[in-house]
Amino acid sequence: MNSDFYPDVIRAGGLAAALQESAATSHTPITVIQNPEQNSESVTVASDTPGRSPLEVFTRIEGRAFQVVGRSGGVNIVTGVTEDLGEVVAVCAAWGAGTAVPRMREAFPFLQFDPVAEAHERGPAAAVAAQWEMLRDKAAATPEFPEFAAVLEAAHAEPRLRSLFPFTSHWTVAFSSRTGSPYRCEVAIAPHYGGGPYLVLRYPNTGVHGQTATAAQAVALALAHLPDSVGPATAGFDFPHDRE
User: Fold this and answer.
1) What is the CA radius of gyration of the chain?
2) pLDDT tens digit string along 217-234?
3) Cα dist. 223→93, 181, 203, 227 in Å?
4) What is the pLDDT of residue 240?
5) Residues in a beta bridge with 206
């Protein structure tokens, strides 16, 4: 850790101690989690709110900058960088107490958010709807690739696919039964730029089920390969043991 950038942190004995010292000075209750695998430059702070992971805090090497990352269900809900250790303490307290994302946006302008991330905290259905809206906006902004838009619109018209969390990989549209990353892909459709067949895949880039001439046919084939047990997307992310 560079003493020119972090003299207060070094003087306190590391980031964990510096956060606790700052919290005590401002009378802000936070619980720093002591993890032996973490070094003096990173730490996590406990959250009392169900579903919210402990807030991650770490220092940057290119200058004085504390980065914070708040995750929920495998999704980065809030991220940001500040030079002020006191602001970090305040964010830790707000995140842990369950302060709503819109209120955190108002209180801490340095934090970054996006509509899909905010939607995740309203539940999986809201996250799915926000993700669909974002991808359809992306398609509208890419008129030179109408095949991509065709896949999205055809899939959105089908209730079972519309209830899954869509994501893209190199313009392939995949459908996940989990809203967090890493996603649990159930089926995917790859449009061909400039025309050509649509590929229906098991995963975004592998496992070809077949190919079709139109987006509507690709959606029908994707539905035929969608397991009957797959319902609307749920909150969370895929674990390796879920595939066993």
Assistant:
1) 22
2) 999 999 999 999 998 999
3) 45, 23, 14, 8
4) 52
5) 203
